[in-house]
Each structure stands twice: as structure tokens, then as C-alpha cells.
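Hi L.,

As promised, Tetratricopeptide repeat family protein:
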Amino acid sequence: MDALSTAETLLVLDCCERVVDAAAALAVELLERCPDLRVLTTTREPLDVPGEALCPVPPLSPEASRRLFIDRARAGRPDLHASEETVDRICRRLDGLPLAIELAAARLRSMTVEALAEGLEDRLGFLAGGNRLAPPHHRDLRGVVAWSWEPLTGVERAAAERLSVFPQAFTTRHAEYVGVRASTLYSLVDRSLVERDGDRYRMLDTIREYGNERLVENGGALEARDAHAACFLDLAERAEPHLRGPGQTAWQARLALDHDNLLASLGHLRDHGDRAKALRSGAVLGLFWAIRGDHATAVFHLRSLLDSPAAPGDVADELRPAVCAAYLLNATFAGALADARTVVGPPPKTSTPVGAFVAALLAMAESRTGEGRAVLEPHLDHPDPWTRGMLRLARAFLDGTSGDIARGADDVEHAVRAFRETGDHWGSSLLLMSLAYARSAVGDTEKATALLEEALELSRALGTHHGQRVWSAMAHIDAGATGRARELLEEVVADATSVRRVASARICLADLARYEGDLEKAGALLALVESAAGEKDPSETALYHSAAGHLAAATGDLDEARRHLRAAFALADAMPDLPMLAQVSVGTADVLRRGGAPERAARVMGAAHVVRGGPAPRHPDVVRLTHELSAHRVHYDRAARLSTEEALALLREEHGKPG
């Protein structure tokens, strides 16, 4: 005491959480008797003494995590080379915790960076048995967490275990749903086992994994997961009516906050025998994913749900058509209808509007458009405007695949009126975009541009404008408004967090670079897309092959161009996506012209006019090729008078021809 009171002094008390009461008493006594003393404590929970000022130490930032990992790894392996993406993935798995990062980096003396990243799927087991000379709570990752876990009271431990069922942030209401009182939650925040994030709370994944291990060992996992699943089924079902009307914006944003929790709930209901509840949840999430533009996500999870076996006479079967409808809606947008019958099975034996929607999209997937129209016809004047809008949307899909542009536009206009009546921004925006494509196809640029901006404004209000901006940019390109298209695409690349949307934007930017003659930049953009991680859906893959084929033709590599364009055509034909077939066919016409077959090129351009529903006279590729093939206009005009079926047959034959 005498030594500390003689001059200004800083005293550090480390790891106070294990002796917090004694540390608090010591700090108070020292500060009372030594006026020039300052005490700095490191602790997982505050001392709660007068004059205490808290300074939370968060996990390291991504950049700092990366630097620490590389520094520690090269201490053992000076020649280490690792991609930034892999290092970031490792550091994210370790929650940016410095000790965990050091433990992981030390493992690189005996394995590759890729093996380390894969091993961290089980981070607690994988990072066991570290430095023998370190204290137990610094020796391995499990020891680090156990050091903080052991001082908890029995109630706190049980609460922390139950909170481990939340894969993302949660509210006090959610916590109470799984049996954790708010007061206990606040205590876990004080002990640094749970972090507060605004009005929500979260566990670091490392702590959550440890808590989940304890929950399983103590036999409480099924009960806690049942409660978690019930909580988020309740949220989904409360959201459902609002997703079809003026509450759509607020409720889709609310569901987005709990996306991982909703997915975990759906998976638990599916895998643990409550099929009816799983189907109820899946139907709501399918509409939510459609609104968000997360079509590939919907296709993956709803397919898994529809694949789950049903017992004979299962009452849940009456809920299945709604999930089939959500699956087919998203599969249509994702270009994933090729195996729709395998996933969905035969059309439901019901005369309801939902059954008709399912039967119509199944018919579209199998090119039975007349049958699809017939099954929709009795329901088109349904009294509920949202239902009416969806049925008109289904018929517009059928019209589009059969090339009946005039009837398609009429159905779209009816659907827009119906969605506007309900206050559904998503449906209105989607269909205005479709009308814009139709107007740009016939050269009505002014009307197309106005429709695009109206659609974009609706999607911006809804918060789903990242995906819509890509579609809008593509329609602006069709209308010849390449400057506006570039603005939208660059916004997506700068703002969007979705890998798919950034990839689609870069593909379109590559086309813009090619129009301007910057083939090197176009190639670099497509290389970024090709190297990007993540599975691509058929629509994105077709878009990529189309752009790559056009670029290869521009560089003179006609064999490479044919390879890409045939791949794109096959994907678009399987969807079916007539605007994409037309876009690909323009590239094929370019290859034919450059290869010395201008008459065939002109016929392909004329057939593309038919399947597109118009000449698209302002699209940059169409403008250029129309000029270059002007001497062969008679062949274009003859093909442009074909029926849709005849034009498709011509294009299919052309894309199957060698050379």
C-alpha cells in the first residue's frame, strides 16, 4: 500500500472474472487509500464499483484479424501464401478472437490453409491441444470458452445452453420463447457470454457451439429446438397476410432480420417429423424469398422440403400445393423448371386457385401452354385481387413462353391493377418491368424508360432494389439507354452483398465494355465472374455464357463463341426464357456473319425478332448487326414472319448445326 501511494501509478488486475468480488473489494480499498492510483482491470464482467468506466473490447475487425493471422502463420511458415478470401473465411469462423486466431495459425506448421479452413467446421475439436506451457484456459479453444463458462450459476448455464439454438441475433421475446428470462439474459450480457446489438442479442459462434455441445450432453436440445422452431413458425405465420399487401415492406424487412432463425426453424420442423408445420413455414418463406429475389435459395430449401416423404393419408398433403406454388414461382425466375415434375409430382387434385397455379406452371415447364391456360381460365376473375394478380401472372408466363406478346401484355396489365389494389409493391414492380421489356422490344424507348423507373422506385421502397436494378439495367440496354444501365450496374457492384447479384451486374458491365470496344475490360469482368465462389443458377449461367460467347466472337475466336452460345441456348431453352434465347441468337448471328454465312445470320436475326416479340431496334448488338446485314434484309423479313414455334425450330436447328 505504501509503495502504491507514493506517486501516480497504474495497477493492472488481469482476469478478474474468476475472483470478481475480491477484485472489486481490493480495487475499492486501494483507490480509497491511494489518491494518485489508477486501476485497470481485464474482466469478462464489470466490478460494479463506484467510478468504474467500462471499455468493451470487441473482436478484431476483418482487416486486423487477417493481419494477425498472417503474422502468426508466417512465424512458423515464412513461405506461406494464402488467398485473402480463405484467410477471411478462417477468421470469420473464429469470430475475430485473437487467441483463437493464434491457435489456428499455429496449425499451419502441419497442414495447408485450405485444410485448416475445412477443419474449422468443428472449431472446438479441431483447435484442441495447443501450447503445453500455456495455462489451461489459453491452451486450446474449448479451454478458452470453458474458463468463462465455469463461473456461471446453474440458471445461467442452462440459459446459455438454450440460447445456443439461435443461429443469429434474437430479441428478449425470442429468448423468453425458449425459456430464458430477460433478467438472466442481461446477466449473461454482463458476463460477456452474450453481446447486445441494438435491441437484439447474439452469441459469438464459438461460444454458441460450446453451448450447443453442453445442451446436447444435458439432454435439452430437442426441447429447446422445438421451442425455437415454434417461435419462428409463429413469426412466419403472422407475417403471411402482410406479405400480400401494404404491410409487405415492413414485414419482409422483419423476416430478413431473422432469416437464419427462420431457416433453422424450417429445417428442424422438416427433419423431426412435424411435416404440416414445415409446409406451413415453407409456403410463407417461399413468398418471402420471391419478394426478396432470393430465388435460388427458395428452390434449394423448398425442393428439400418437398422431397421429404409423407405417410399415407398424411393430413399435411392438403398444405403441399401452397409449397409447390412457391417452389414453381421461384423456379420460374431462377430458370430451374427443367425437373419441376420430378420435384413437385403430378398436379394437385384440387380445383382451387392454388391448384390451378401449380398445374399451369407445370404445364409451362413441359411446353403444354394451351393446357396451362385452360386450367387457369375458371379462376381469372377470382374476387380476391392478390389471387387474381398471381393467376394473371401465371398466364403471362405462359403467354411469354408461347410468344403471344399481345395477350401477355394484357395479362400483365390486369395483374398490375390487381396488385396495386392490394398495395403489393413486389408484384407491381415485377410486372411493370415486364411491360418495360415488351415496350423496348418494339422500340418504344420513352414508355419503356418510364415503366422501368416506376418499377425501380417501387422496389427501392420495398428494399429489394439490388436485384431489380440488374433487371432494370438489362431492359435499359434493350432500349439503348446504356448510360443509365451503367449507373444502375455500378450501384449494384458497390452496394449489393449478394454474390449472385454482383456477378450478374458484372456480366452486364462486360457487355457494356464490349459495346464500347474495350474487349480487355470485358474479359477481365467475365473472369471475375467465372472465378467467384458459389453455385450459379441456370439464369445466371446462361447470362454468363451469352456474354462470353458475344465477347469471343468480337475477338475472332469463333469456335469458343459457338461453345458458349450453344451452352447458353440450351439453358435458356430448358427454362424456357424467350428473351434470353433472342439475346443468345443475336450472338450466334454475329458468329455466322463473321464466319461467312450472312444469309443464315439474317435468318437467325429474324427468328430472334419473333421470339423476343419485336425487333429491339435500339439494342446495341441489334443496331450493329442490322446495319452489317442490311444487304440480306429479305432473309430477315422472311424469318420475322414465322410463327413462334417455327422461329424456335429454326433457332434450335441453327444452334445444333456444326460450324
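The radius of gyration is 30 Å.

Thanks again for sending the construct details.

K.
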